[in-house]
From TrEMBL:
One of its GO terms (molecular function) is chromatin binding. This is Cohesin subunit SA. Residues 1-29, 1028-1054 are annotated as: Disordered. Belongs to the SCC3 family. Residues 249-334 form the SCD domain. Its main location: nucleus. Part of the cohesin complex which is composed of a heterodimer between a SMC1 protein (SMC1A or SMC1B) and SMC3, which are attached via their hinge domain, and RAD21 which link them at their heads, and one STAG protein. Component of cohesin complex, a complex required for the cohesion of sister chromatids after DNA replication. The cohesin complex apparently forms a large proteinaceous ring within which sister chromatids can be trapped. At anaphase, the complex is cleaved and dissociates from chromatin, allowing sister chromatids to segregate. InterPro entries: ARM-type_fold, Cohesin_Scc3/SA, HEAT_SCC3-SA, SCD, STAG. Residues 190-243 form a coiled coil. The gene is stag2a. GO terms for biological process: cell division; chromosome segregation; sister chromatid cohesion. Keywords: Cell cycle, Cell division, Chromosome, Chromosome partition, Coiled coil, Nucleus.
Amino acid sequence: MAAKKGKKAPGDKAKGGGAGRAPGLGRVNGHYQENGMETLFEVVKMGKSATQSVVDDWIEAYKHDRDHALLDLINFFIQCSGCKGAVSGEMFRHMQNSEIIRKMTEEFDEDGGDYPFTMAGPQWKKFRINFCDFIAVLVRQCQYSIIYDEYMMDTVISLLTGLSDSQVRAFRHTSTLAAMKLMTALVNVALNLSINMDNTQRQYEAERNKVLAKRANDRLENLLQKRKELQENQDEIENMMNAIFKGVFVHRYRDAIAEIRAICIEEIGMWMKLYSDAFLNDSYLKYVGWTMHDKQGEVRLKCLGALQGLFHSRELGARLELFTSRFKDRIVSMTLDKEYDVAVQAIKLLTLVLHSDEILTAEDCESVYHLVYSAHRPIAVSAGEFLFKKLFSHRGPEEEGLPRRGRQSLNGSLIKTTVFFYLESELHEHGAYLVDSLWDCGSELLKDWESMISLLLDEPVSGEEALTDRQETALVEIMLCAIRQACECHPPVGRGTGKRVLSAKEKKTQLDDRTRITEMFAVALPLLLAKYCVDIDKVTNLLQIPKYFDLDIYTTGRLEKVCTFLHLFLIMQFHLDALLRQIWEVQDKHTDTEVLEASSTTYHSLCNEEFTIFNRVDIARSQLLDELVDKFNTLLEDFLQEGEEPDEDDAYQVLSTLKKISAFHNAHDLSKWDLFTSNYKLLNTGLQNGDMPEQIVIHAMQCTHYIILWHLAKVSDGSSLKGDMVTLRKQMRAFCLMCQRYLNSINNAVKEQAFTILCDLLLIFSHQMMSSGREQLEPLVYTPDSSLQAELLNFILDQVFIDQDEDNNSTDGQQDDEASKIEALHKRRNLLAAYCKLIIYNVVEINTGADIFKQYMRYYNDYGDIIKETLSKTRQIDKVQCAKTLVLSLQMLFNDMLSELGFNVDRSTSAFCGIKELSRRFSLTFGLDQMKTREAIAMLHKDGIEFAFKEPSPQGQGSPPLNLAFLDILSEFSSKLIHQDKRTVHKYLERFMTVQMALQRDDCWLPLISYRNSLQVGGDDDTMSVISGISSRGSTRSKKSKSATASKRKLPEVWMNREQNMQTPVMMHSPHLTSTVLRDPKKMRQEDSSQPHNKCLCVLLSRRGSGLMEDDEEPIVEDVMMSSEDRLEDINEDMNFETMDIDLPASKNRRERSELKPDYFDPSSIMDDSVRIINFLQCCFTYLLLFLCNRSM
């Protein structure tokens, strides 16, 4: 098809009157508009008029003057691209499309990257819809005449093809969208023509098949002529579609912009669906198949959407067998796509593919099956629909006519299939996830509790295979999960952000389900408990069902509506008594902790004072507890009897009874039985004799812990007697002392229990218990002494920070498999978290965290997240103390290294490099806002400097101090100092140095040299130059920042008070070893003695104040960046929560030194000539000393 504009007939000018009208004159919305008035773009953008009327007005204008109307349409596309230029009539008549596009490109506003199709807001979203509607309606209204005039469509297609090849994204995006929508509209026209041709052909065949006498030759000729015209129109439309497809689609489906590619794929899907005879073939399907490998999820999503539209129709899906066989593996792999939306649509597409038999293999289906356990709920629900359709939707002829409910029903068979699938998946602890995945599509099946009960209680009929014990256990778990899902109406943990608000319909369904559950299981649950009384797993799950009961049913139930109320009441009480009796038998036969806790929870659920059954259940509970307590006291008296050694039978009886009491004490207040004395006596005897079984000690501690907590709850509520607080205080302190003594036990399990309970009690009875208006609890506050803190810390170091092999050797022959390793690691993480909470809530001293923080690198994989969060929370409490703790941890590691490697520190060893890397990680946690951490960083440097010069050299005078290498570690924090603080820290460093130290250049003195250089203003560059001259860099502030003179604050110089009586020689600047060229004096900066910025940190090291650095000047971008490129990569992963993000390219985060000009509003940038001369003379004197030293050598 020609891509060039057609020529007008000579008479068109006079007829249209276009020659006598200005180029901007047009007819829009029923009236002509002048330039500057309402344009076609504005009409479509505002959307005030219906699209139909806008198109009709344009057609009217086209018939009147087609050149001018086309000019309006061309400018419409130009303006939709965001271009401010306009095509004039002269340009339209004498310039080719390529020249017009080039001209418009030159007039395009390059400053603004937005254009209508990328702008946000409802107005522009509506504009996109109106734009697409306008093109569709335009073609539909012109389909009978104008589009065949070989002028309008040729011009539009030629323009859009040229724009789609433009380098300007806005032109390319807008024209591609317009061309694709134009193509879709032409496909509809072609489809109508095809239908009309088929109808005409049928009419022609019918007329021709008539007998000669009844045949109408005129009608045959008319039909032939009509078919010929339709065929010609069809050919023209196909030419137009080919021009668009080859000129636009073939190039733009692989455009650099993902949105343009997505438009192409979305529209080709529409073409194949609308006009399958022409487009549903491999020539077009291949583009969709290829694009499924696109890097952008948006484009892959459009591919899947296009295929879903085809597979929705079984007729079209049958024609996609070749495509499916070619790209099936790619579709299956997309179920694991990193974009969740893409994965969901891929699963839905495979669900539609199930219509076609034998396309998906068993391996393909299994790859989707396991996704029902996905943590992402939309993926899991989609996989559940796939599973339900694959396994449950196909009914054989033998299943027709089965009963609706019960063991022999169709649902009974499907429930067994669900159980088989659940067991084969080998993820038995995720039953709740499977139920949630199937809930949306199979809730009717999962709510058939009647069939589930029948499968568990009824005997199988002849010829039916009974469920195995493992299958019955799985069925009980699925039944419980279905009950929980129906009553709670929210997904399991990990699949939802929280409880959503239920609609009125959902609330009614929830209430009806609870009623059905209560009516059904009030009768069936006692029978189920009786049948599976000795099975731990089944009983544990069954005992959780009563907490979902509607207890009001026990008095107003609807089991038999024909019964009288009295009869009904007696029936419900009978079932309640049966349930309570079965619970009593369960706890009597079991000693497993899970079963006992489930029994305790069931009693707690049934003992609700709001219902009339409370008295009945409370009596049963009290009788049970009376029996347990009496039995325990009797057994304990015999067990602790002096002179007799208890046998294993007595120990087992005491342990089983104690476990039951402890389990019930977790959910019920047993204060009236006074169990503290007996438990304390038991624990004390265990300490004295040392031969108490560990399980008895563990459960006695747990029970005593519950006693303390229930007593505290009564005291906090104000419902206790006057002396109860004194009693609680004595009991709590005595129990804490007991647990502290048990920390030295030889049994690891006992020590872990004592440690966990101690951490909980110290946190509960800390000073924070007085918050929220509870000052009356102040006598109960318990602060651990130094010995207890030391024992807790030693326990952590001995039991948590150990290698995996050591832990395996200490687990009494436990199998060294992956599951046991994970369980042991989880236990150690809980112990560490318990201790870290004491640090976070300021129960123990913050500096005790130094032993924890120093393990950050070594145990990063196991405890890195816990240590990092502890560090973050500690910094929120006290920034300065946290910084001192960090440097203390580094000092501890340094001392350990010296004790292992000796006094001669080799900075290339792995131990030293590990400490340096740890300090780098610690530095990153301070973030980018230097002003927030200014005081903390200063204190860190002070402690580090003092530590470095603390110990003299063991080799005598003239050798570096023992800890001098620590300065190399400390230099990692120099980049966190602001300029004026660097000068102050440098002065503090000089107080520990002598002239001889400054002149040393041996390798052993390199830590001092590098640290001094890092403290030079400008020393935080990557090069770390040894030139220690005054930096010429100025500070670059934002426009909104305050001036330096207004933001700086005078501070008293008391930092050096510690050394005031020392006769320390005045230090000179370090010699310039790398260059003898001095800086231009005009660019040098000197401290102004009248300004306080050189004293800004003096107050930090003698006293601590709040808000010391709040009003100082803003740090410039250079100051807050790290000192090497690899540090920039670690900012995001190692940054603390208090930091801010910088979204700049790495090459632009650091400005060139020549670009940084002095801030002339900063007094420190002004230098006095005399000061410059003094500095110059000092440098010369330094070089003279070096020269004399070299000559003497």
